[in-house]
């Protein structure tokens, strides 16, 4: 995880770039630990909405995968259950539910602790909406919506310590700047402009793309369960969401133009999915109906950022994750939870040193052969 320098009984003023899953989770834990947080996020939802309006209308320009398939591993559920049970309760009331895939491995459900390996299942938009609602209710969180971070600035008289960030609505002074901007992070460029050390980014193209279409069950529809089928030309997956929604996704090689053309057609997509027996059971047109167009996602890579934690004494750090192995949210939340110790009285104050987690380094650089 990296060795963290921590201070006790100190209120840290933190500026968080990005009001997505990582930024909101970090902010909630920090605020509940007694620290002051300012979040800047450029893509607010419509006022007075709910989880369904967030799904339909929330324009998350900075999150291109916002309406794509999302799986949240057991570690994410554990963080919510242990550190933010009120947020988990809000998720359940919004329609999220828990499920365990451990029984799919013969004998695994008899191992000690296996009962705790349940996942929560919902759309990403629902999770973000619930986290944002919780953040709005926190007295120590100042959520500045419609504001975009533009650069870092240095502490007075220092060339090596960040004093805060510049935004489209003015400067924000901070002891710690957290970059939670996700795939479109600009922090490496900001550090370079400020004369600070920049991280080393290592990226491996997975050579895969995916195609997703969403379905919603009618009143009499059975509960959909996670299903994965390995085909000769692609992987086909059903992933449950919340409130009767579920996604059907084809993962395919990046260079198969004929397959891409077929799967981008909404009707042919449904026909192809219904031709696969285990999937067809869930796509009975009398029980479920498809919604929207086929969502395409490309440029999938596994990324590892070395040397970014702390950037020396810059008062800046970034949570990172792993997309291809579905570890993005889980990795970030585990890192965030570990940066806030058990009682919440301590928080990372901007001096981080230490190496990469070995398992993340290995998995992030795995190459996946073309089918």
* Topology order in helix (H) and strand (E) letters: EEHEHHHEEHEEEEEHEEEEEHHHEEEHEH
Number of helices: 11
Strand order of the largest sheet: 6-3-2-10-18
What count of structural domains? 2
Mind describing the biggest β-sheet? 5 strands, parallel
State mean pLDDT (0 to 100 scale).
80
How many strands? 19
Helicity, as a percent range: 25-40%
- Regions with pLDDT < 50 over 5+ consecutive residues? 1-9, 308-326, 341-371
| Distance from first to last alpha carbon | 34 Å
Strand content: 25-35%
Shape: globular
Cα gyration radius (Å): 21 Å
Helix/sheet category: alpha+beta
Task: Give a description of the structure.
The protein contains eleven helices and 19 strands. It has 371 residues and is α+β, with helices and mostly antiparallel strands. The protein folds into two domains: 3-149 and 305-364; 207-297, D-Amino Acid Oxidase, Chain A, domain 2 (2-Layer Sandwich), CATH 3.30.9.40. The chain has a five-stranded parallel sheet with strand order 6-3-2-10-18, with helices on one face. Strand 13 and strand 14 (235-240) form a beta hairpin. The longest helix is centred in the middle third of the chain and has 13 residues, at 124-136. The radius of gyration is 21 Å and the shape is globular. The two termini are 34 Å apart.
């Amino acid at each position: 995880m990296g060795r963290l320098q921590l201070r006790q009984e100190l209120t840290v003023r933190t500026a968080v770039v990005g009001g997505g899953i990582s930024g909101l989770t970090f902010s909630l834990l920090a605020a509940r630990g007694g620290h002051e947080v300012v979040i800047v996020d450029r893509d607010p939802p419509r006022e007075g909405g709910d989880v369904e309006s967030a799904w339909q209308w929330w324009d998350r320009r900075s999150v291109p995968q916002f309406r794509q398939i999302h799986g949240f591993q057991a570690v994410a559920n554990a963080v919510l259950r242990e550190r933010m049970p009120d947020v988990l309760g809000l998720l359940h009331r919004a329609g999220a539910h828990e499920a365990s895939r451990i029984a799919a491995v013969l004998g695994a459900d008899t191992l000690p602790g296996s009962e705790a390996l349940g996942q929560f299942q919902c759309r990403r938009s629902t999770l973000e909406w619930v986290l944002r609602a919780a953040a709005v209710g926190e007295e120590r969180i100042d959520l500045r919506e419609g504001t975009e971070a533009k650069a870092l600035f240095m502490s007075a008289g220092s060339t090596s310590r960040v004093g805060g960030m510049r935004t489209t609505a003015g400067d924000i002074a901070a002891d710690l700047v957290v970059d939670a901007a996700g795939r479109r992070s600009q922090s490496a460029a900001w550090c370079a402009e400020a004369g600070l050390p920049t991280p080393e980014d290592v990226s491996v193209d997975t050579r895969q793309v995916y195609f997703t279409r969403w379905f919603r069950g009618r009143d009499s529809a059975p509960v959909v369960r996670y299903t994965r089928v390995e085909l000769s030309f692609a992987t086909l997956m059903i992933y449950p969401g919340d409130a009767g929604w579920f996604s059907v996704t084809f993962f395919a090689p990046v260079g198969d133009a004929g397959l891409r053309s077929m799967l981008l057609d909404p009707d042919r997509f449904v026909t192809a999915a219904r031709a696969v027996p285990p999937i067809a059971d869930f796509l009975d047109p009398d029980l479920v109906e498809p919604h929207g167009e086929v969502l395409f996602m490309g440029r999938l890579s596994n990324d590892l950022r070395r040397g970014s934690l702390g950037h020396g004494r810059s008062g800046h750090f970034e949570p990172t994750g792993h997309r291809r192995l579905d570890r993005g949210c889980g990795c970030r939340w585990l890192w965030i939870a570990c940066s806030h110790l058990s009682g919440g009285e301590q928080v990372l104050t901007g001096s981080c040193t230490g190496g990469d987690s070995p398992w993340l380094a290995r998995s992030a650089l795995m190459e996946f052969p073309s089918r």
